Amino acid sequence: MAQFFEVHPDNPQPRLLKQAAALLARGGVAAVPTDSSYALVCHLDDKAAADNLRRIRGVDDKHHLTLLCRDLSELASYARVDNRQFRLLKAATPGPYTFILEASKEVPRRLSHPSRKTIGLRVPGHKTLQALLELHGAPLLATTLIPRGQTEPLNDADEIRQQFEHELAAVIDAGACPLEATTVIDLTGMGEGGEAVVIRQGRGDVAVLGL
Asked: Checking phi first, is residue 73 left (phi over 0); if not, alpha (psi -120 to 50) or beta?
C-alpha cells in the first residue's frame, strides 16, 4: 500500500520527504511530481527496484530510462559530455528536457540502452523533486508515469494513488503539475561533429536552445 505524502509546493516539508527517501532507499518505487508531469522513480543501484519500475510502467529493457540529477556536475558523472554538449545542457537546465547521451562507466550496464550504450539524463526544475534528490543524495532512475496501454502522462496525485496504490511505495503530492512529457533531445551525434536531434517535442521549448 502506497504511503501518501502531501507537501507544500514551494516549501516541501523535509520530514515528509525524508520518509519518502527512506522508502526509495529500501527499494520502493515512488510517483513524484516534476516540471513536466508525474514520474515513477527508484534507487539507481537496485536491480529489483528498476525491474519493478519497468513492470509498473509496462516497458521492457529497450525503453530508455532517465537519470534525474541534482545539477550538471552530477549529470556529467554519468555521461560522456564534450564542450558543445555541455553548453547546450547548461542553457537547458534545470528544466523539462531529457537528454540522450553516451553513458559513462558509472552507469550500470543493465540500465543503459542495450544496443546503443546510451542513457537519458535530466536536471528537473521542480522544487519538491530537487529537495527529494538532495535528501536521497544521488540520482534517481525515472520514467514518465504513463499508465499501461495509454499515451498521456498523469499529473493528479489522487488519481495516481487510486490506480497504483498497491504497486507503489509512495506518492508525493505537491499540487498540480503540468500534463505534458519532457522534450527529448539526442545529443550523441554532437560528439561526432553532428547536431542535436529532437526525438520528442514536449514541454521544453527547443527554440530557446536554437534547435
From this structure: alpha
